[in-house]
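User: I'm curious whether this sequence folds into something compact or stays loose and floppy. Could you predict its structure so I can see for myself?
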Amino acid sequence: MTISIPELPLLTLSDDELALINLLRADMLRDRWALQLRDAYFNGEQLVRDLGISIPPQLKGLHTVIGWPRVGVESLEERLDLEAFRWADGSDSAELAEIAEANDLFDESSLAHLDALVYGREYLAVGSGDCGDDCPPLISAESPLDMTLMWDARLRMGTAALRECAADNFIESGPDERMLVLYLPDQTVMCLPSESGGWEVVDRDIHQLGVVPVVRMANRQRTADRVGKSEITPEVMSITDAACRRLMGMEVAAEFFGAPQRYILGASESAFQDAEGNPLDAWATYIGRMLGLERDEDGNIPTVGQFAAHDPTGMTKIIDLYARIMSSQFGLPPHMLGYTTDNPASADAIRSTEAKLVKRSERRIRRFGSAWQQAMRLALWVRDGEPPDKSRCIETVWRNPATPTVAAQVDATVKLVQAGVLPADSDVTLEMAGFTETQRQRIAADRRRAAGRAGSTALLDRLAELGAGGQPVSAEPSEADLGDLG
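Assistant: Here's the prediction. I'll summarize afterward.
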């Protein structure tokens, strides 16, 4: 879909632009309630639906929270650690590192991943810097609460995007005023509300890229749903509500049935009066530790007993059942949700239960890594004014989402080196051994310094040998001597 913009004054919205704004804004507002609902479950702020049966009116305001949605989402996000960008051909990646560090992408990436898992999607917007031609391009992560994208499934690319944000950077804007940013293939249009109730253009960035500088980071896509789905599914919300109601039922039972109920058969009225003959209230009668009871007219002693107190074991078993169901939904080991057994699991058993979580993490790394690569290519395009060479692929470097032991990683790497599959001084060898990108860079620098010191020592030894052989020590070594020194 190609959007043509007629030549109009810069501060005037065309009919096509205004129609796009209305269409995209309606799409964004339509989905906002569903996104806010997922956000409420993640933050533990959802309102649990009361069935109106077992909760007395006095406890209607009791809010019970169980944090399983947060635990499930964060357990997956914590395994998605973006470490670096690099060229696949092994060339110098300093320009990629400069853009990533200028935008603090390695910290911002965790926020983008978390929103993508909670909401089902996140957006990466790319633009030019504000400090001139020497400023690195900007890459910002935008929430779907404030942004939407029009997607062409056939071309697998966006055709238009809209973001609604605070207008703090414009002097013309008033307090708490909102602005719209319309992203088009050839330009980016920024608008403020006008006095007539419409939108007034305050700036146009004519970039002429030919593509919309917005990338969608979608979670759990399907061919019929390219927008993405949240990890907080209807099943997760239903189980969370059920577990919260059980916890609330335990609170009600503790208030009304936690203490044992007592009964007295055959007691006279005087047993419930104080020394002055005044009747005791229910609480004073209940907390009395010793009851002095007289025989009745026939000389019989009143019968005293108590009913069994409420046992919460049945409730806790139900909550354990919900924990196991929730662990299957998130692919988590049950102990992460608080469900434990009498026999502790071994280390191998724990890693086995994490297999599904690791696989889910690897799938998210592939999907999210593609979005980061597209965003970085757009950033290079914005910086250079021309698209990067398609023959040069950008790779994203991620930390291993699995939890192998250090000994297992090193042992496997050593065997590959001994078999001749990997060279000992390769960066791939260090990566397989579990070293991070920063550690690998430091090791490479240490190797260069060590090689320089070894070369200097060898040169001094050669000069000493030349001096001992009758030649002047200060003589410059020949090219053949330097060749022998490597």
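Summary: The longest helix spans residues 437-468. The radius of gyration is 35 Å.
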